[in-house]
Automatic annotation (TrEMBL):
Pfam families: Lipase_GDSL_2. Residues 56-248 form the SGNH hydrolase-type esterase domain. GO terms for molecular function: phosphatidylcholine lysophospholipase activity. CDD domains: SGNH_hydrolase_YpmR_like. This is GDSL family lipase. It comes from the Bacteria. The lineage of its organism: Bacteria, Bacillati, Bacillota, Bacilli, Bacillales.
């Protein structure tokens, strides 16, 4: 009888504890269990991963103005990315062609090699738009006004949309990074006061178009060249970046990609930057 009472008491105690755990006190602290679970797992960057990056676009991707002829911003960004604990190797495929506009890049994207590279990529980085603006300058040299640029900007937006849509059709999961255009035009068209406004408007449109595709990032570099002025431009044309210009571009790109775990979000993976000494 005594043993039976002890058994019933034990059973009652177990039921009481279970009912207590299923009440508000347990459900109000779900993060405690999650945190414990996370602590039992290896850190996200425990096993470094290869990062496949496809660079497409114009002369800024090709690296015109780069004295080393090694791809402009690419080697600088590659070195920085490979400095992350989570990245074993950053593999870049460079498909930049000098002079490319959005319409020309759209045609080149149908090339089998580029298509295959994008299909296998974690991130696609694009530099485009500068030559679209230059085309407006050249075709309207004797009648340049803001309305002309705004009219062409709308067409540029349509082409950019088609370009991004094609990339997404190749790879629905790749991160898309679009680098904004900068203003080297004051060197050539210093009498046109609206050039800064034109660049600002085109960059805003690019960012707006990009937002519709998700898992993407727009990176502005225009302020770098405003502050550096001609000291960051290639002396042979004062249009393309020089070595320092490309290095600063790569630095900005790396900062933006690693801020607030942007790279992890773009790749839907675990490329997380961990500052030394922080959890």
């Amino acid at each position: 009888m005594v043993q039976m009472r002890k058994l019933l008491f034990s059973l009652f105690l177990i039921l009481f504890l279970i009912s207590g755990c299923s009440g508000s006190e347990f459900t109000s602290h779900p993060e405690s269990a999650l945190t414990l679970l996370e602590k039992e797992q290896p850190p996200a960057d425990f096993i470094p991963k290869d990062l496949k990056v496809v660079s497409i676009g114009d002369s800024l991707t090709q690296g015109v103005g780069d004295s080393t002829k090694s791809g402009g911003y690419v080697p600088y960004l590659k070195e920085s990315l490979e400095g992350l604990d989570a990245v074993k190797q950053a593999e870049f495929s460079n498909y930049g062609v000098r002079g490319n506009r959005t319409d020309q890049l759209l045609k080149r994207l149908k090339n089998d090699d580029i298509k295959s590279a994008i299909e296998e990529s974690d991130v696609v980085i694009i530099t485009i738009g500068g030559n679209d603006v230059m085309k407006v300058f050249k075709e309207n040299i004797y009648d340049l006004n803001l309305a002309v640029f705004n009219n062409e900007m709308d067409k540029y937006g349509d082409r950019l949309y088609e370009l991004l849509k094609l990339i997404r059709s190749y790879n629905a999961e790749t991160g898309i990074v679009l680098i904004g255009i900068y203003n080297p035009f004051n060197t050539w068209f210093s009498e046109i006061k609206e050039v800064d406004e034109i660049i600002l408007n085109w960059n805003r449109l690019s960012e707006d178009v990009l937002e519709g595709f998700g898992q993407s990032a727009f990176i502005s570099v225009n302020d770098i060249f405003i502050e550096g002025k001609e000291s960051l431009l290639f002396e042979e044309d004062y249009f393309h970046p020089n070595d320092e210009g490309y290095e600063l571009m790569a630095k900005r790109m790396f900062e933006e990609l690693t801020e607030r775990e942007t790279l992890a979000e773009l790749t839907q993976s675990e490329f997380i930057v961990r500052e030394e000494g922080l959890e």
